[in-house]
Design goal:
This protein is α/β, with parallel strands linked by helices. It has helices spanning 30-43, 57-69, 86-96, 112-119, 123-138, 156-168, 185-198, 218-227, 249-258, 260-263, 285-296, 317-325, 353-362, 369-385, 391-406, 448-460, 504-528; strands at 11-14, 47-51, 77-83, 102-109, 143-149, 173-178, 206-211, 232-235, 345-348, 388-390, 411-418, 426-432, 438-444, 465-473, 482-490, 493-501. The protein is built from 17 helices and 16 strands. An eight-stranded parallel barrel has the order 1-2-3-4-5-6-7-8, surrounded by seven helices. A three-stranded antiparallel β-sheet has the order 11-12-13. A three-stranded antiparallel β-sheet has the order 14-15-16. Bound molecules: 3-methyl-2-oxobutanoic acid. 3-methyl-2-oxobutanoic acid is lined by residues 19, 81, 107, 147, 149, 175, 177, 179, 210, 212.
């Protein structure tokens, strides 16, 4: 067995910052990636795939910063993806230098369709490159993961040869990607069983699975692979990722937790053995999921397993009746097990700063004095309109304030909108520019949100297209806070922004400014480092 990998549990390899960031529009800057990486470490993931170091200066900086600040002794393994080329591997090795436990994840396609049309290489060439590049990666780090891309559509005989050679060259983890999300669970089981039976040195490594969700089978495929002896799962928070995404970390972890008696025997344990099957602190799941959703601008569908808004809600009378009599009649896990805060009414407009600080601390937010004052002022403003503030409202407020911190750039000063059935919707906006000028302008629009959008665009003068606008209510009730998510497009890149307020037009204005600030920062980065636009 390689490294520290115990075969009696599942190693969680989180690729939110690499494959997850490949979701259209989910681009994250270095600070945002670092914030997610810190939270992933709190969640207890074993490996963080922090990026694809060679892809751009931004990716390189993210891997390096995460290696420095999250990958210290006692922290998770920090990994960078690298194609099987010297240049990629060198970039990965360089970015990973500060990590206490660095891993290079190198990959090359092995299916005939990829070899013929994409790589234009023969099988023998790929075989040689795979083992040469694994050995090259090994010259930098001890921990080398190898992925034969499109493994599930590769001729099994050829796959066995590639894997055997990669292991002989020094790979410590062998990852099997179902790159196009094509397999059914039964086929995945056969594939893994075939590899275990036909690759003679397979017991020297940890066997891993990477499942894409094109047919909605990613989680089922990963769990089946575990039944067949796989001991590392590659997954992302909220299942985000290329196309239809990846296996969702929260689904894999909670399936292993809730159905432990079912999975225990596959690990050689007694059915009722109590030890967890992963190292994940499940109470951190909800917080991690919200953070990733907010920073990527990728909303979670309400019926998403584990973390969707409806995942623990019971609508039908029969179900509600059962729940009231005995929770387990209709609930297989408790909301508290993923750290979902109860929607308790906690504070009101008369609550003081101390009560506010104490409740935030209980919710896991440690704010410095300056941030606390800002968040408290915002709380007072909202509490004036919305008499009772729940944990969910507090969270929305604090997250907004923390976002404003990260998003330096334009500041929204005032927003005023006139609308109705006999008037042309008109918005007047005042902003402070990054260099401190106060500007005001007004615009009409097809509706109040459009008018706000047009007025902000007139002020910031950065061309962009609004491609998505959505509102979610934080809690129920007529005075609920609404969270607005906006996605803007600029030259085929997507930038998102989110904000909450009791007035959704005001939330829309703040969300738009947040998205514009991301675009603004991107343009600044392009100006200082033009090569970063290449990827
Ligand atoms: O989908 C895929 O094949 C990948 C590999 C790099 C693991 O993302």
């Amino acid at each position: 067995m390689s490294m520290e990998s115990p075969a009696d549990r599942v190693i969680i390899f989180d690729t939110t910052l690499r494959d997850g960031e490949q979701s259209p529009g989910a681009t994250l800057n270095v600070e945002e990636k670092l914030a997610i990486a810190h939270q992933l470490a709190l969640l207890g993931v074993d490996v963080i795939e922090a990026g694809f170091a060679v892809a751009s200066p931004g990716d390189f900086a993210a891997v390096k910063t995460i290696a420095e600040q999250v990958g210290m002794v006692g922290g998770p393994i920090i990994c960078s993806l690298a194609r099987a080329t010297r240049q990629d591997i060198q970039a990965a090795a360089e970015a990973l230098k500060p990590a206490a436990r660095p891993r290079i994840h190198t990959m090359i396609s092995t299916s005939d369709i990829h070899l013929q049309y994409q790589l234009k290489k023969s099988r023998s060439e790929v075989l040689a490159i795979a083992s040469e590049m694994v050995a090259y990666a090994k010259s930098f780090v001890d921990d080398v993961e190898f992925s034969p891309m499109d493994a599930s559509r590769t001729d099994p005989e050829f796959l066995y040869q590639v894997l055997e050679q990669a292991i002989a060259a020094g790979a410590t983890t062998i990852n099997i990607p179902d790159t196009v999300g094509y397999c059914t669970p039964k086929e995945i089981g056969t594939l893994i069983a075939g590899i275990r039976a036909h690759v003679p040195n397979i017991d020297q490594v940890i066997l891993s699975i990477h499942t894409q969700n094109d047919l909605g089978l990613a989680t089922a495929n990963a769990l089946t692979a575990i039944e067949h002896g796989v001991r590392q799962v590659e997954c992302t928070i909220n299942g985000i990722g290329e196309r239809a995404g990846n296996a969702a970390l929260e689904e894999i972890v909670m399936a292993l937790q809730v159905r432990k008696p079912f999975f225990n025997p596959y690990f050689g344990r007694a059915v009722d053995a109590d030890a967890p099957l992963t190292n994940i602190k499940t109470q951190e799941i909800y917080k991690t999921s919200s953070l990733v959703s907010r920073l990527t601008g990728m909303l979670i569908q309400p019926n998403k397993a584990i973390v969707g808004a409806n995942a623990f809600a019971h609508e039908s009378g029969i179900h509600q009746d059962g729940i009231l009599k005995h929770r387990q009649t209709y609930e297989i896990m408790e909301a508290g097990s993923i750290g979902l805060p109860e929607n308790r009414i906690v504070l009101g407009k008369h609550s003081g700063r101390n009560a506010f600080r104490t409740r935030l601390k209980e919710l896991g937010f440690e704010l410095n004095e300056a941030d606390l004052i800002k968040a408290f002022n915002r709380f007072k403003e909202v509490a004036d309109k919305k008499k009772e503030m729940s944990d969910w409202d507090l969270e929305a407020i604090v997250r907004d304030e923390m976002q404003v911190q990260v998003e330096s750039g334009y500041q929204l000063e005032h927003v005023q909108v006139i609308c109705g059935d006999c008037t042309c919707p008109t918005a007047t906006i005042t902003i402070v520019t990054p260099d401190g000028k106060i500007l005001t302008d007004a615009s009409v629009g097809t509706g109040p949100v459009d008018a706000v959008y047009q007025a902000i665009n007139r002020l910031v003068q950065i061309p962009n297209q609004l491609i998505e606008f959505s509102v979610q209510s934080v809690t129920g009730g007529i005075d609920a806070l609404g969270t607005v998510t906006i996605r803007l497009e600029y030259q085929e890149r997507i930038f998102s922004g989110q904000a909450s307020d009791t007035d959704i037009v005001v939330a829309a204005a703040y969300a738009h400014i947040n998205a514009v600030n991301r675009l603004y920062r991107y343009l600044q980065q392009v100006q200082t480092s033009p090569s970063s636009v290449a990827h």
